[in-house]
Amino acid sequence: MARKTGQCLHGAVTFTAVVGDTIQACHCVQCQRWTGGGPYFAVAIENLEMPGAESMRDHHASERGERTVCGTCGSTIYWKMQGKAPQILAAGLLDDQSGMRVTEEIFVDYRPSWIPAFGGARQSAEADEMAKLDAYLASQST
Questions:
Q1: Which residues contact 12 (CB under 8 A, 6 or more apart)?
Q2: How confident is the model at residue 142 (pLDDT cuts 50, 70, 90)?
Q3: How far is residue 95's CA from residue 114's CA, in Å, rounded to a whole number?
Q4: Which CATH number fits domain 2-140: 3.40.50.1980, 2.170.150.70, 3.40.50.1100, 3.30.450.20?
Q5: At CA 43, angle to CA 37 and CA 45, rounded to 5?
Q6: What residues contact residue 49 under an 8 Å CB cut-off, 6+ apart?
Q7: In the chain, domain spans
Q8: Are 109 and 126 in contact (CB under 8 A)?
Q9: Cβ(111)–Cβ(24) under 8 Å?
Q10: pLDDT confidence of residue 26
Q11: Three-class secondary structure of residue 39 per DSSP
Q12: Which of 66, 95, 108, 109 is deepest in the core (most CB within 10 A)?
């Protein structure tokens, strides 16, 4: 993981974070609509510093998830569990995306037929992801 910088389309939201070099592609229907057709490409982050946070707008997209966009330009920023700090953000916001690769695809049962699978990436369907989410939530309640 390396410290990287990034911003939304117009620069209203800027950030620095420690970022991994792997990308997760989410093909769920909400992500397709949120990004305009393709998957949401997410990178894992730590130590997020985001001085433009006052420009962001949150949307409670489900009973558990929250999607955040720039309120100025509409750029996709991140998805997070409601009430939790973000652990991923949109890969396309990074100033330097070199050396990154898609290593995991989730909700592949919703991947449009016109998008090919990423070679070598782990694949998981909705049922797999919901089981992981249930296990995570159970671990948080103890």
A1: 52, 55, 70, 71, 72, 73
A2: low
A3: 28
A4: 2.170.150.70
A5: 140
A6: 15, 16, 17
A7: 2-140
A8: yes
A9: no
A10: 97
A11: coil
A12: 108
Hunting for tokens 């995570």 — which residue is that?
136
Token pair in block for residue 59:
């949307």
- pLDDT tens for 78-129 read 999 888 899 999 999 999 999 999 999 999 999 999 999 999 999 999 999 9
- The pair of structure tokens assigned to 65 is 């998830």
For CA atoms 26, 122, 126, 141, give the dihedral sign: negative
Count other Cβ atoms within 10 Å, centred on residue 51: 10
In 8-126 the beta strands, taken as DSSP E runs, fall at: 14-26, 40-49, 56-60, 65-70, 76-81, 88-90, 101-106, 122-124
